[in-house]
Design a protein that fits this description.
The chain folds into two domains: 174 residues, Metal Binding Protein, Guanine Nucleotide Exchange Factor, Chain A; 149 residues, Peptide methionine sulphoxide reductase MsrA (Peptide Methionine Sulfoxide Reductase, Chain A), CATH 3.30.1060.10. The chain has seven helices and 19 strands. By secondary structure, the chain is an alpha+beta fold. 40% of the residues are buried. The strands form five sheets. The protein has a six-stranded antiparallel sheet, with no helix packed on it. The structure holds zinc ion (ZN). The site of zinc ion (ZN) has 8 residues, from loops.
């Protein structure tokens, strides 16, 4: 009886989503029709003509006109038309504009609405803002502001009761080789200025994405200025999302110990303060065991390692200009020089 009720409730909810989708489709068609008048000529060769969009686009990625219409001008793709609405690959979804990660496949679910649906996002990756229509909540990439879609609550479609309704065209999927969700690893490392730490992890095979941010302190919504004051308890931290079927956590942790000096207390080279301390924030017991074992190995070799091993807390995304810092500048880190410490 209860099951029947739940199933019926789910069916009703699915019907409601389909109905909302039909209305949204209407809005989209009207919107596209209107856009074709507004931008007459601009869209004649959409998907063929490419041009560089500047301004919000920090990495100056090339967008097609259709991508620009959705990502920059907040348009909507037609439902059931995108690449990912019915896609079931295992991996992560990146922002098409800035390349930073937004969702993992674990959060994706079938909502029958014709757009990719997720019931969660990576920490701090997506920002909600009131839509210009005065009714809906728009979602944008927290790093670059690119339009993703809209967010809906209270539909009772999953236990989390939230649906990120995202345009496929706003996303870029990166899959993992084994296609097994268990092989999608997330690791956090703090080892001095996060620009340099991110630089080296980005180059490692099997690393799907990196972000820089703050972890380990109590202050909510910390800014770089707050963290530099050295009283928030936060450490400059790099999030590394990796394919464990390609690169092991041990290999990443060894890299961490070789791109920074784990014997320096509350500093790293010229950067002084507890925000530059050396920490491994583990996300599971296996990572903790590996980190502790490697520290033991280094101690046996005579290194006076001061690296802390702590359970990962909340990750606060750092400001956009800190992301991919050296990549964007085309420079090499001043703060980190790799040194071989393992055999
Ligand atoms: Zn972005």
């Amino acid at each position: 009886m209860m099951m029947d009720y739940i199933l019926k409730k789910r069916e009703r909810n699915s019907l409601a989503v389909i109905l909302i989708s039909a209305i949204a489709l209407g809005i989209t068609v009207i919107g596209n029709f209107r856009m074709s008048f507004l931008k007459d000529g601009d869209f004649e060769n959409k998907n063929i003509i490419e041009r560089v969009v500047e301004g919000k686009d920090m990495n100056k990625r090339k967008l097609t006109l259709e991508e620009e219409r959705v990502l920059i001008h907040k348009g909507t793709e037609l439902p059931f038309s995108g690449k990912y609405w019915n896609f079931k690959g295992v991996g992560i979804y990146l922002c098409k504009l800035c390349g930073k990660p937004l969702y993992r496949s674990l959060y994706k679910f079938e909502s029958h609405c014709g757009w990719p649906s997720f019931d969660d996002a990576l920490q701090g990756a997506v920002k909600e803002i009131p839509d210009i229509d005065g009714v809906r909540q728009e979602i944008v990439c927290a790093n670059c502001g690119a339009h993703l879609g809209h967010i809906f609550y209270g539909e009772h479609l999953t236990a989390k009761d939230v649906r990120h309704c995202v345009n496929s065209i706003s996303l870029e999927f990166k899959g993992i080789k084994s296609n097994n969700e268990r092989d999608l690893g997330i690791a956090y490392f703090a080892g001095g200025c996060f620009w340099g730490v991110e630089y080296y992890f980005q180059k490692e095979e099997g690393v799907l994405s990196t972000r820089v941010g703050y972890m380990g302190g109590d202050k909510r919504f910390p800014t770089y200025k707050d963290v530099c004051a050295d009283d928030t308890g936060h450490a400059e931290t790099v999030e590394v999302i990796y394919d464990a079927s390609v690169v092991s956590y041990e290999k990443l942790a060894k890299l961490f110990f070789e791109i920074h000096d784990p014997t320096q207390l509350n500093r790293q080279g010229p950067d002084i303060g507890s925000q530059y301390r050396s920490v491994i924030f583990y996300t599971n017991d296996e990572q903790k065991r590996v980190a502790e074992r490697l520290i033991e190995q280094l101690k046996e070799k005579g290194y006076n390692v001061v690296t802390e091993v702590e359970e990962a807390g909340k990750f606060w995304l750092a400001e956009p200009y800190h992301q991919d810092y050296y990549e964007k500048k085309g420079e090499h880190p001043y703060c980190h020089r790799p040194v071989k410490r393992f055999d």
